Amino acid sequence: MASDFYGEILAPSGAYKYFINGDWKESASGKSVAIVNPSTRQTAYNVQACTQAEVNEMFEISRSSQKQWAQTPLWKRAELLKKAATLLREHALPIASCLVTEIAKPSRDSMTEVIRSADLLDYTAEEGVRVLGQGKILNSDSFPGNGRNKLCLVSKVALGVVLAIPPFNYPVNLAVSKIGPALMAGNVVVLKPPTQGVVAGLHMAQCFHKAGFPKGVLNVITGKGSEIGDFLTTHPSVNCISFTGGDTGISISKKAGMVPLQMELGGKDVCIVCEDANLDLAAKHIVKGGFSYSGQRCTAVKLVLVHDKVADELVSKIVPQVQKLSVGMPENDCDITPVISETSANFIQGLVLDAKEKGAKFLTEFKREGNLLWPTLLDHVTPAMRLAWEEPFGPVLPIVRVQTVEQAIEHCNKNNIALQGCVFTQDINRAIMISDAMETGTVQINAAPARGPDHFPFQGFRDSGIGSQGITNSLEMMVKTKSTVINLEAESYAMG
């Protein structure tokens, strides 16, 4: 069944096709891009290397499809999203298998990502009908000096063409979190999947295709970022960019001009542990938050700032839990699997070596085999070390000892990537005070940072992002306000 469902997306050459105007096509370039399995470091798939001319064609088709799609009733858009969600669940296994191969995500977590994405679409459909179905009527006499001779009808209309660019670590979920609200709001979408995770993205797109969405409403381009990346993000047909990733987003934002942006660019998520914290709870969440999916999460715990009075006890609870983490291949559902690339592994290793040279204490041994890095816990990390500030995006967790909570907050607020953070204390008043002082997008109290549930607002401060995500916020961001003013005849109004 799965092979029949997905058969049309694979070209005779063995390379996956791209999706345009309801059809799967091969690029006129005759070239392909190799997708490397992080575990084996061998080519696992090939996808089309699309050209700038094909990008132009895709945007032209998107623009011509958008007005008719925007006229589709809300209930019908919701119905199609729910059909796509059903197909995602029915075909979750092959999509999850792609995630295991392309991004070395453990099997169980890969399945969770696909099912979570289906749940997100269902919620988006229902929330979209509620949020987008509401308008306002304003009367002119509510403003001084005016009579009741004007009515203003305020409605929400689509932006147009949304360019969606998700990251490698959640290529299905973070694609769906952009596509769902955009389509529900009457926009059309051009999806540029990440290189690692692109095949899972193509499989996901097939679910939208088979759900019955009209041609041209969702299009998927593949290719080399060096050839089509800037061309996509600066294209004059783009009316909104929703991007999740790293520093590339800063470059995009500088070139985007007047285009609305929704961006999440990562963060150095700190965990503040107060002297009155429940240390068993803190240790459990620190290990889970720091090492899930090998630390390759924008909301992973990236730095522990613990009060010196309880640091030794906290460390004694964390170390054995880290030592129990299984290390190996994603097919075996190991806790720690290979990081996404050799470049990433080299960067992480550089951060660790810098900390070692500057006197950090290793609580677990740093080991590496190819892209597979063993979980590494470092204590007595100082602000002079790169690990105190830079985001490793790997299974490495530094611990900084502080004398006061104020010192921890100061360190948090000095970092320019401020997505999330967390604080552990048994004093709720203190927790709120610390949360208020932390200049970061979201603060979790007595739990590790996390993106979900997917309808919660999700945003970063400073270089961590622009705008706010979460299903409701995304729906509202994907529309613009339009006013229609009805001018009543003065004579008729006077008669009333």
What this model shows, in words?
Pfam families: Aldedh. Its EC number is 1.2.1.9. The structure is a single chain. By secondary structure, the chain is an alpha/beta fold. The protein has two domains: 2-265 and 464-481, Aldehyde Dehydrogenase, Chain A, domain 1 (3-Layer(aba) Sandwich), CATH 3.40.605.10; 270-445, Aldehyde Dehydrogenase, Chain A, domain 2 (3-Layer(aba) Sandwich). 40% of the residues lie in helices and 21% in strands. The protein contains 16 helices and 24 strands. The chain has a seven-stranded mixed β-sheet with strand order 14-17-18-13-12-20-21, sandwiched between helices. Strands 9-8-7-10-11-23 form a six-stranded mixed β-sheet, sandwiched between helices. Strand 20 (420-424), helix 14 (428-437) and strand 21 form a beta-alpha-beta unit. Helix 3 runs antiparallel to helix 5 and helix 4 crosses helix 5. It is globular, with a radius of gyration of 25 Å. 51% of the residues are buried.
